[in-house]
Design goal:
Layout (H helix, E strand, L loop, with lengths): L1 H36 L15 H11 L10 H19 L18 H22 L3 H32 L4 H6 L5 H19 L11 H4 L9 H26 L14 H21 L5 H30 L1
Helix pairs in contact: 1-9, 1-10, 2-9, 3-4, 3-9, 4-5, 5-7, 5-11, 7-9, 7-11, 9-10
Length: about 325
């Protein structure tokens, strides 16, 4: 019974983090973009540094009418936001944030396979929303989402495989237990490929072709309003948290601190995740959207070859040290 209570407590903490962390990323994005772009609006809501901007956004979404197009497939249309959001909760539950069994909601032996498979399910939410909306622009957005997933899933998987080869395990906890800081220089290519492919799967700028407002209004989300639209936004921010946490765990040592300073434990994971989340926001502000042909070319002519080269390098290093 104690074991059941312990697991329940850890999963409850994961759920609490899942509710809070994406909102903090969204609030940070408002502030960072306001500073970088010289926009004053998000700096004044509520007084001190615009602290109430997030509250104002939540109230705005709650007040909007929940509209379902007459020709839409109502059940699929209404289910799509939950399908887009919930997979990130499952992934967050298996990411180890600190040393020991108590620092993960539920350890999974095949952790890498689990997280990559479940993250791919989240894209189905966009496909469902695009197909069920009975809107040609929404359908085009859904099709672009499918094409983007197919293109960037492969380099993301190959990059993660290189870390699994280095550690000799596909368990996230096992990878952290075997992590060595000298891995970083020769795994940096894999880290860049993994992070870039993850941004593309999340449809974050500059990879936001599925929601290109100048071409297809807002893609699969065009017909969504109110809280259902807010759930899609929350799924995007939850995806940022999950991607940054996975990158920190797989390539940056997770709870391991530099120079053997592991005493901070889970705070190291939190700090690395926060820094990577800032990079995600910075990229949105700094780079224009890619064209669809540039998007596909980057995946197949650059990221896939780099990921294969990383695997080859990992194999060479493993043979050399053994």
């Amino acid at each position: 019974m104690n074991d059941v209570s312990d697991v329940a407590l850890r999963l409850a903490i994961v759920f609490a983090v899942f509710l809070v962390a994406p909102l903090l990323v969204g609030q940070t994005e408002h502030k960072v973009m306001a500073h970088m772009q010289g926009r004053l609006g998000p700096m004044y809501a509520g007084g001190f540094h615009g602290w109430a901007q997030l509250v104002a956004d939540g109230v705005k979404f709650a007040q909007k009418e929940d509209v379902v197009p007459a020709a839409a497939d109502r059940r699929v249309f209404q289910l799509a936001p939950a399908v887009a959001l919930l997979p990130y909760l499952l992934v967050l539950a298996v990411i180890p944030v600190g040393p020991g069994d108590g620092a993960v909601g539920q350890a999974v032996d095949a952790g890498i396979f689990f997280v990559l498979a479940v993250m791919g399910v989240g894209v189905l939410g966009s496909l469902m929303g695009g197909w069920a909306s009975a809107n040609k622009f929404s359908l085009l957005g859904g099709l672009r989402t499918a094409a983007q997933l197919l293109s960037y899933e492969l380099p993301m998987l190959l990059a993660a495989a290189s870390v699994a080869m280095a550690a000799g395990t596909v368990s996230l906890t096992g990878i952290l237990d075997g992590f060595q800081w000298w891995w970083l220089p020769w795994q940096i290519i894999g880290a860049l490929v993994f992070f870039t492919a993850g941004l593309a799967e999340l449809q974050r700028p500059p990879f936001d072709m599925p929601v290109a407002d100048s071409e297809i209004i807002f893609g699969a989300y065009t017909e969504y309003t109110g809280l259902r639209f807010a759930l899609f936004l929350l799924a995007e921010y939850a995806g940022i948290v999950v991607l940054c946490a996975l990158t920190a765990v797989l390539f940056l040592g997770g709870w391991h601190g530099p120079f053997g300073a592991d005493g901070l434990g889970w705070l190291w994971t939190l700090l690395k995740t926060a820094v990577l989340a800032f990079v995600v926001i910075w990229l949105r502000v700094s780079y224009p959207r890619l064209r669809e042909d540039q998007l596909q070319k980057l995946a197949w002519t650059t990221l896939v070859p780099l990921a294969l080269a990383q695997i080859a390098l990992t194999g060479i290093v493993k043979v050399a040290i053994n």
